Each structure stands twice: as structure tokens, then as C-alpha cells.
Amino acid sequence: MKVFLLVFILVGISACNSENPQLIVIKNHCLTKMKGTDKFCNCMSEKANKNLSDKQIDFIVIGFTGDKDQANEIRKSMSVDEITHMGDFMRVAITSCTEPK
What we know:
Layout: H1 2-17, H2 21-32, H3 38-51, H4 54-65, H5 68-76, H6 80-97
């Protein structure tokens, strides 16, 4: 019984600490394609998590893969406000995550 309880607790803790796979894709794209620093890319990923809906995050990630058909399907399901918010998010997030020189 104690072993079962320990396993249950460990699984619960790891589930709580797991990061959204889409956010990992955003961070990795930022690091490899945008050549961002770890701090900058963590910031971008965290801000996406806090400020964008799952649909908006999916759209960004699919844009990275180049799957135009799937991106168009998601875009068609989004309102003008959702699309505008993504553009505003990118401008503000990039500016706020960039360290002053």
C-alpha cells in the first residue's frame, strides 16, 4: 500500500510539472531558428502560455511546421480579434522579452 501511494504521488508531481508540448516547440523553434537566448526563449514561451489560447498556440506551432492546409483550417476557425491579438502578442512579447543593450 505504501509503495502504491508513493508511486501515485510521484506520478502526480511529474504530471503537474510537465510542460505543454506546444510550448516546448515554441521554445525550441526560438532557440534554433530565431537563434534566441535561453532566457529570451523561455520568456516567449511563458508569455505565450499566459496570453494566448490553445488555438492561437496551435496556429503558431503549425506555422513553424509549414503545414499551410492545417494552418488555414485553424485560421478559418479564428475570429479577427484572435488573429489580431496574436500579432499584438508577438510585438509586445518580443519587445518585453528582449534585454536592453
